[in-house]
UniProtKB/TrEMBL annotation:
Name listed for the protein in its UniProt record: Class Ib ribonucleoside-diphosphate reductase assembly flavoprotein NrdI
Pfam families: Flavodoxin_NdrI
InterPro entries, A to Z: Flavoprotein-like_sf, RNR_NrdI
Lineage per the UniProt record: Bacteria, Bacillati, Bacillota, Bacilli, Bacillales
Domain of life: Bacteria
């Protein structure tokens, strides 16, 4: 399972490149099977508020995180949401993508998904 959140469409695009049905985070979403999380970065290297709330309820089955950011923000905060989630929940940061990323990113994510997430 793939769970994502997207504000301006980049993460939605990334999720659409994977052969799995992505589910968008909503207030009510509760997940009780292994999933891969894909998020953007907010603020200055911050986790989007809705992702913080989602993980408070659903971190148990999160097997890895993929983050999109914008490298123009500078390397200390580029993709910072992914770094923070990985450190807080002790899960792998699978890939950090600049905006929509590239084909090689989608292939690496797909491989991780097949081997470490998919049931
Ligand atoms: C208000 C705001 C703050 C952002 N802060 C960061 C940041 O600190 N680090 C980063 O790498 N990207 C940052 N970004 C860039 C987004 O994470 C990036 O454009 C991402 O691809 C957006 O994904 P989405 O189109 O799915 O919403 C910021 C974007 C906005 C609008």
């Amino acid at each position: 399972m793939i769970v994502y959140t997207s504000r301006t469409g980049n993460v939605r695009y990334i999720a659409s490149k994977l052969t799995a049905d992505p589910i968008e985070i909503s207030k009510e979403l509760m997940v009780n099977k292994p999933y891969l999380l894909i998020t953007y970065t907010d603020g200055l290297g911050d986790i989007p508020a809705k992702v913080i709330r989602f993980l408070e309820q659903n971190a148990k089955f999160c097997k890895g995180v993929v983050v999109s950011g914008n490298s123009n923000f500078g390397h200390t905060v580029f993709g910072g949401a992914g770094e923070k989630i990985a450190a807080t929940y002790h899960i792998p940061l699978v890939r950090k993508l600049d905006l929509r990323g590239y084909q090689a990113d989608y292939e690496a994510i797909q491989k991780f998904y097949e081997t470490r997430v998919k049931e």
